[in-house]
Amino acid sequence: MKQLKDLQEKAKLVRKWCLVSTTEAGSGHPTSCLSATDIATVVFDRYFTYDIDDPLNPYNDHFVLSKGHAAPLLYTLFGMAGAYPLAELKTLRRFGSAFEGHPVPKYKYAEAATGSLGQGLSVGAGLALVAKRESYGNKTYVLTGDGELAEGQIWEAANFAAHEKLDNLVAILDINRLGQSQETMFGHNIDEYVRKFKAFDFEVMAIDGHNYEEIEQALQATQNPDGKPFAIVAKTFKGHGISFLDNKDGWHGKALKKEELEKALKELEPVNDALRFELNKPKQKLLQSTVNLIHSGLTFDKGKEYATREVFGDVLVKLAEQNQEIYALDGDVMNSTFTEPFKKTFPDRFVESYIAEQNMVSVAAGLSRAGKIPFVATFAAFLTRAADQVRMARVSEANIKFVGSHVGVSIGEDGPSQMGLEDIALFGSLPDSVVLQPCDAVSTTKLISLMVAHKGFSYMRTLRPKTPLVYKNEEEFSIGGSKVLRRSEHDVMTIAGTGITVFEALKAADELQKENIGIRVVDCYSIHPIDANTLKKCMNETEQRILITVEDHFSHGGFGDFTAAALSGEGQVIKMAVRKISQSGTKDELLNDAGIDANHIVTKVKSLFKQPAMA
Amino acid sequence: MKQLKDLQEKAKLVRKWCLVSTTEAGSGHPTSCLSATDIATVVFDRYFTYDIDDPLNPYNDHFVLSKGHAAPLLYTLFGMAGAYPLAELKTLRRFGSAFEGHPVPKYKYAEAATGSLGQGLSVGAGLALVAKRESYGNKTYVLTGDGELAEGQIWEAANFAAHEKLDNLVAILDINRLGQSQETMFGHNIDEYVRKFKAFDFEVMAIDGHNYEEIEQALQATQNPDGKPFAIVAKTFKGHGISFLDNKDGWHGKALKKEELEKALKELEPVNDALRFELNKPKQKLLQSTVNLIHSGLTFDKGKEYATREVFGDVLVKLAEQNQEIYALDGDVMNSTFTEPFKKTFPDRFVESYIAEQNMVSVAAGLSRAGKIPFVATFAAFLTRAADQVRMARVSEANIKFVGSHVGVSIGEDGPSQMGLEDIALFGSLPDSVVLQPCDAVSTTKLISLMVAHKGFSYMRTLRPKTPLVYKNEEEFSIGGSKVLRRSEHDVMTIAGTGITVFEALKAADELQKENIGIRVVDCYSIHPIDANTLKKCMNETEQRILITVEDHFSHGGFGDFTAAALSGEGQVIKMAVRKISQSGTKDELLNDAGIDANHIVTKVKSLFKQPAMA
C-alpha cells in the first residue's frame, strides 16, 4: 500500500498536536484522542469530502465527534485540513478560545456540541436522514467511544438508523477498552459489539483500528450502500502510539507533564510538520433559505371550543406549505399531539421517532444543523426523558421548536406520570430559551408563526382539554408579550394566568366583580421572556400592589418564578401552583385539588383584600 | 394439561374486570391489558410467591408492571389474589381511588410508579440485584409492552442485568404489535426482539402468548437459573379474547362504551366470579430496620482545604459501616464523585452502572423499594440524563439520595457540557424534595448524615474545587437551615450564597468592609427547604431591605427563585446567577465571566448602596 507510509506520517503529526495542545492546556484527554487517531486520519486523508470555507454546505460529508472529550483530535484534523494554523491549538481550553474542552458551536466545524456522551450517533442520523431524503449523496461519519455505547440512546439511534435505512451513515466505534474509572463493561470483547450492532440491523465490520489496511478495507466497504447503516468496530488501544500510554490504566483525562511530553514527542520523531490533508470539495452548494414571518390564515368561530394541541397540528400544516424547511418529529403520539395531519400531508418531512425521545431530540439537532426547522412533539412529561439532549441541543444553538402537549393536572384521569409539571423549569432554565403557552386557538396560531420566524430554541405548551376563544382572529401577539383581559379603574390586585389558568382567573374575576372587588387579569402567553413592563404597570396601577400568578405547573421553576424575578422590589408576587404529586380525577377535581381553580383564586384574593379606608 | 381449563376460566375473569373497570371509568387501556392477560394469569396462578398481607417482605416475588397503562390488569390480578374485593375496581381512575390511571405508591402492590415507559426493567433489575446479593431466592417478573422496547433505557437495563448475571429476573415482553398511534417499528417480527435480547446476553424463548402450554413451558424454563436473565418474547394480540378488539387498530387507550362492553361480556360468558389465585407465601420475613441519625466522626484541619465531593466519599464509607442498608451507585465516574472508597470497602453494596444514568436511577428506585438506602452519584450535569427517571422515582416515593458533583461554571476548563447548571431546577421543582449544597468539609459531613436519616428524596450538590473550612468540627446543621457568617450592627443589605459562592460573598463582604459598608452574609446550605425565617430576619434587620442571592446555577429555577418565593413582599431579592452558556477557562475566569464572583458582588452592592441620610 503506497499510502501507508504517508498515512503513518500524518498520524504522527495528529498525535503530536493532541499531546502538545493538552499539555499546553494542562488538562484534557490525550489518550482518548490517540486511540482514534489512525482511523480518523484515514477518513480525513482519503474519504472526507468537505468545503473548509463553507462548513454549512449540506453536500459536505459530516464528521460528528460523539466522544467529545477527544476534541483535540477534531481540532487537529481540521487544522491539518487547512482550517487554521495548528499553532492555534496552543490556546486549547483557554478562556475565549474556540478550542474548548469539548466541542461547541463557537468552533464552526463541530456538527454539534458534544461531551455528554451517547448523543452523536443520533445527531449523525439526523444529518444522514436529511441527506438521504434530499439526495445529497454525501456520508456522515460518527466517531464514538466505547464507554458511551452503554448509553441507551445509542440503541435508540441504532434502531432509528436501521429503520430509516441510513446507508449513508458510518458509525466508527473506537473500542479502546478503558473508561474513565476502569475497564468498560465489555473491555476488548469485540464480539459483544459486533453481535449487538448486527442484531440492530447494521452492516458490521470488526477491524484492528491501528492497522491501515484493515481501516482502508472497512472504509472502502462503507462506500457501497446496501440499505443498512454501517458500523466499523475498531479494536484500539487508548494512548496508542506512545509506549508509556499505550493501553495503560490511569491515564484517562490526564494531560502529560512537560517532561512526559518531551519523552512522547521523542518517540514520534521525526515528525513532518508540513503535512496536510487535501480535502475534495463537494460539487454542489445549497443556499440556506431565509425565514420570513408566515401565517396559517386559519380563523376560528367565536362560539366553538378548540384544543390548542389540535390547532397546533393544523397550523403546522399550513405553515409547512409555505416553508419547505419545516420538519415534524413525533414519538408515537401523533394522534395526541396532532402532528398526524402533518404526517399525512408531508410524509417526506415527517420523522416518526417511536417511543425514543432522546434520539428524537438529538436527531432534531442534526436536522437543525442541516438547515431544517424541526418541530419536536410529544407529551410535555416525556420531553423530560430527553432533558439532557435538550440541554445539549441548547448548547449546540440548535434551532428546534419543541411542542409539549398534555401539560399539567388538567389532563385528568391518566394521573401524575402523564402530567407535564416541570417542563417550564426544564426549558426555562436554559439561557435565552423562549417558552410560550397559548390559552386559545387564535393565540396558538399566531404564536406558532412566531416560533418559526424566531431563530433559536423555543418551547410551546399545549393543552389537552378544549378551551373557548379569548381572542378575535385579528389579534396580534409577540414573543415577550402579554394581554390584559380584565381591567377597571379600581383594580385592587392582578391575577396573571397562562394556558388553562387564564380561564380560572377570568372566572374568579367575574365572581369577585359581583362583590365589587375589581381584579386585573393578564394572560401571560409568553412565559419566557416574560412581559415585565406590562406586569410592572399592573403592579403600579393596582391598589394593593399584589400580583398573583396561577399556573398548572409545579411551584418551583415555573411561570411564577419568572414573574417574581421580573417584579422583584415592585410589590408582592404570590404564586399559586401545583405543590404536591397529583392523582387521577377529572380536570376540575384536579385543578381544585391542586388549589389553582377559580374558587381558590377567589378565596386567596379575599384573604388578601383590604377595604379601602375611604370606602 | 389439567389446569388448562382452570387457567382459561381465570383469564376470562381477568379480562372481564379489565373491561368493566375501564368502561366504568370512561377511559383507560383495556386492549393493552388483554394482550398480556393469559401470560400474567399463569404467572399469578402457578408461579407467584407473595404474602398479600406484607407487600414489602423482600422474600416475596416481584411483579413489575412496566407497561403502566395496563394498570387494570395489575389491579385485577391482585384483586383475584385476595388483596381487595374486585368490585372496588369500579372506582378506577376516580379522584381519591388507589386505582389510578397508572400505578402509584398509594396502591401498595405496585413495585414502582410506572406510566413513563421503558423504566420497569431497570426497577426490576434493582429488585433482582438486591435479591441476588442477599440470597432471597425469589424471582422478579417484569411485564413490558413492545412499544416501550424502543426506549434506550431498556437496553441499558438489559446490559446491566446480563452483566450482573441476574438469573432471577424474568422479562415478559408483550409483543402485541400495536403502539399508540400505529404499528410499532417491528410489528410482529418476533425475531427482531429475539435477536436483540440474545445479543444482549439474555436467555430467550419466543412463544405464542395466548398458548398456555407454551407459556407454561417458558415459565418452567425460567425456574432453572443459569447465570443469565430470561426474556420471554410473547407474540400476542392487543384486545385478545374479544373478537371485535382482537388485533384491531384504533383501539389504543379507549374504554368500551356500555353497549360494547355488554357485547364483549357476552363473548366471555359464562364467567365464574368466584375464581381466585391462591398465592404461596414466602417462608421467610425480614424486618425493615429503622434509620437513626448516625455520624461519620470525621474531623478536619482548620488550615487545610477539602473538595466537598471527596469528603462525601469518605463520609459515606463511615456511615455505611454503621448502616448496612446503604448502597452506592455510580456511572463510571467513581474517581470523580469519590464513591471509589465505598466500592473498595463495600463491593457487595456498590453498583457500577457504567455510563447509563437512566438505568442507574431506576435501579436505585428498585433498591429503595427493597428497603435499601441508595446513594446515586455522578456529575450533576449527567443526572439531567435521567430527569424522567428522577421524576418517576419521586412519584414512586423512592428514598434515593442523589449526589451530583462538578456543579456550575466553577469546574473550569471542561466547558459547558460538563457543568451542572440546571440541577437545582430539576430536583427543586419536584414537590417535597430536599436540595442541599454544602460549601465546606464540615457541613458536607453533617449534611450527609441528615440525608441518610431523612426518609425521602434528597439531592446534594458537591464541588469540584477544594475549599477552606468555614465551620468548626462541632457545628451542627439541619435540613431547612442556614448560617449567618457575617453580621454587624449596621448591615445595609444581605448576600446569600450557597456552595462555591459563599466564598465569593465572604470576599465581597471583606472588601466592602474596608469602605465601611456592612454586609450580612448567609450560607444557604439548604436550598430546599430554604431557611425562610432567617432570611426574613436578615431582610428586616438590614437597612435597605435588599437581599442578593449569588449562585453557580442558571438564573431560572435555582436558589434565587426559592429565596424570592420565600421573601415575597418582604423586600427586594436580586438574583446573581449564570445567564448564558459558559465556556472553557479557569474557575476564576468563569466565575467572573458569569458575573458571580466577589468583584461583581462588590460592584452590585455599591450600585445599590445608599449613604444613610444621617451619616
Task: Supply the helix-strand structural class of chain A.
Answer: alpha/beta
* Most extensive interface: A-B, 111 and 111 residues
How far apart lie the N and C ends of chain A? 98 Å
Any low-confidence stretches of chain A, pLDDT <50, length ≥5?
Answer: none
Shape of chain A: elongated
Strand order of the largest sheet of chain A: 8-7-9-10-12-11-17
Radius of gyration of chain A: 28 Å
Overall mean pLDDT score of chain A?
A: 96
Helical stretch count of chain A? 21
Helix content of chain A: 25-40%
Number of E-state strands of chain A:
19
Work out the oligomeric state of the chains in this entry.
homodimer
Instruction: Report the β-strand fraction of chain A as a percent range.
Output: 15-25%
Question: In this structure, how is the largest beta sheet of chain A organized?
Answer: 7 strands, mixed
Description:
Two copies of one chain form a homodimer. Chain A has helices at 4-25, 30-47, 71-80, 120-133, 152-163, 190-199, 212-222, 258-268, 308-322, 334-337, 340-345, 357-369, 380-383, 387-395, 423-428, 441-453, 501-513, 532-541, 559-566, 587-593, 598-608; strands spanning 62-65, 140-145, 169-175, 203-208, 230-235, 305-307, 326-330, 350-352, 373-379, 401-405, 434-436, 458-461, 466-468, 483-486, 491-497, 518-523, 526-528, 546-554, 572-578. The model of chain A has no long low-confidence stretch (mean pLDDT 96). Chain A has a seven-stranded mixed β-sheet with strand order 8-7-9-10-12-11-17, with helices on both faces. In chain A, α1 (4-25) packs antiparallel against α2, α12 (357-369) packs parallel to α14 and α17 crosses α21 (598-608). Helices cover 37% and strands 16% of the residues of chain A. With 615 residues, the first copy, chain A, is α/β, with parallel strands linked by helices. In chain A, β18 (546-554), α19 (559-566) and β19 (572-578) form a beta-alpha-beta unit. Chain A contains 21 helices and 19 strands. The interface between A and B is large, with 111 and 111 residues.
